[in-house]
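for the record, two folds in this file. i put them one after another cuz i was lazy. first one right below, seq on top, structure tokens after. the second one comes after a little note so u can tell where it starts
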Amino acid sequence: MMQDFLFYLNLGWEHIISLDALDHQLFVLALIAVYSFNDLKKILILVTAFTIGHSITLALSIFDIVRINSAWVEFLIPLTIVLTALGNIVMKNKKQSQNTVSYYLALIFGLIHGMGFANTARVMIAKSQSITIPLLGFNIGLELGQIAIVFGILILLFILLKICKVNQKDWILFVSSEYLPYH
């Protein structure tokens, strides 16, 4: 049982840390771009909301309750990144409103991102007698990976803001505008 848990924990970690997970990493960057180390509790709640959404989709997929065409998923995942970045720009002066909206969006967008791994999860986990250990291990690994990414981003932000004296609004605009299409 512990070996299964560790296998899925590692799978969850790799799912967010690997180079193949750039979509998740960019989403996390866009999601936390407006925050700093002072907002660590808010950030951790945000990434946990994302993990919960991701987890719900995986569970629904494993039980074969939800199936979404992969072409739609491949369209929706980048859309979540663009919408999050656009929200950073539009809501830049309304931090309190943005916090509340961000929690719900992280949860909803987690549902969408979970669809990206749903087919693989369905095949791997459905063969198990119980989904509890695989799903728990995977989601803890995913959460730990996201926290590692968050700390990496926050360290970079600290260096930029405190040592290089970059303005935080410029950082937010730079990070968020990178996702928006150019016309």
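(here's the note) second protein begins now
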Amino acid sequence: MAADRDAADRDARRVPVRRLTVLHDAECSLCGFLRDWLGRQPQLVPLEFVPAGSAQAAARFPGLDHRATLDEITVVGDSGQVYRGTAAWIVTLWALREYRPLSHRLSTPAGAKLARGAVLAAAKWRGGQGRSVGWGGGVYRRGDGWSYDPRLGWSYHRPTCADGTCSTG
């Protein structure tokens, strides 16, 4: 298996992991929620969050396929270990004090099937959200003319040239 070969190349089974960098899609609401949730959890191994596909990610990890990191969760260990997809979720849970036992269960063959199902469900949800503007799951952004009032919810006011936010589209 490629992941086993990659781990053997870096001797990852004997090299301790002291820090993990989680590359996340900063434009994805689910990814943002999970990033915030992970950041609030007690950590046995510190987690650092870097937007996938960003200049910061490219500078820190020049050997990664950064387009792929936007499609699938990628976690990088401080000694160069790279985890993608299901393995990335499992190692992220492994870093958390309360979820380390769960990560061990998910790393078994039976547990890996459950973890893979969760990763596929999240990917399917993300795929359905799209990155389109307008109705259909897009994100409401203040810069696009949206504002939020707790009593009324979201409302849209088309930007005008008078306020310096002329639309070019």
